[in-house]
């Protein structure tokens, strides 16, 4: 999207501020989810897990659904961590495109911001009743953020290729 101060999002006024605000909205959503008590978080997760179990096995009986939901619980909860942090990584990288730094520096800053937020989020959970902070979750969150950053970088590369190739996408 942007390579220097002479082009790209950093000179697009309102777009720059929208892109810079996006990660703040995702961070607010993460904070709200992390502020749920252990009981509330389990209820939210169980609702999603039950929906996934029903989608996987639509004709299953209640006992089979309960067993399936139990076996899916860990994977669905951790996928939710990775997914919301992938959104944060994507939005943070898009925000970083509004700054006149090298792409490498932008990506490094984005991953550091996301990893620091993940660590802070887990520390925050230590003070929420029924919740705990887990180093494993910081690692999962950071991996999700890295995936989002890579997606933003790939999209930026495709955008540049399309823009410079007069509308021709690869393939």
Count of DSSP E strands? 0
Number of helices: 5
Q: Write down the overall mean pLDDT.
A: 88
Overall geometry: globular
Strand content: under 5%
Distance between the termini: 21 Å
Q: In terms of structural class, how would the helical and strand content be classed?
A: mainly alpha
Low-confidence stretches: 1-7
Order of helices and strands: HHHHH
Largest sheet properties? none
Helix fraction bin? over 70%
Notes on the structure:
The protein has 171 residues and is an all-alpha fold. The chain contains five helices and no strands. It has helices at residues 14-34, 38-56, 62-96, 103-125, 135-164. It is globular. The relative contact order is 0.14.
Summarize the SSE layout with pairings.
Layout: H1 14-34, H2 38-56, H3 62-96, H4 103-125, H5 135-164
Summarize the structure.
The protein has 171 residues and is mainly α.
List keywords for this structure.
disordered N terminus, mainly alpha, globular, 171 residues
């Amino acid at each position: 999207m942007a390579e220097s101060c002479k082009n790209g999002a950093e000179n697009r006024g309102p777009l720059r501020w929208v892109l810079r605000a996006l990660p703040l909205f995702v961070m607010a959503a993460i904070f709200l989810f992390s502020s749920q008590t252990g009981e509330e978080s389990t209820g939210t997760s169980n609702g999603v897990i039950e929906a996934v179990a029903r989608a996987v096995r639509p004709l299953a009986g209640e006992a089979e659904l309960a067993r399936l939901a139990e076996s899916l619980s860990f994977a669905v909860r951790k996928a939710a961590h990775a997914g919301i942090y992938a959104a944060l990584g994507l939005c943070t990288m898009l925000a970083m495109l509004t700054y006149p730094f090298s792409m490498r520096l932008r990506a490094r800053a984005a991953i550091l911001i996301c990893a620091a937020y993940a660590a802070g989020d887990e520390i925050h959970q230590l003070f929420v009743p029924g919740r705990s902070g887990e180093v494993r979750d910081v690692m999962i969150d950071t991996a999700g953020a890295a995936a989002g950053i890579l997606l933003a970088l790939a999209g930026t590369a495709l955008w540049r290729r399309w823009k410079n190739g007069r509308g021709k996408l690869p393939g």
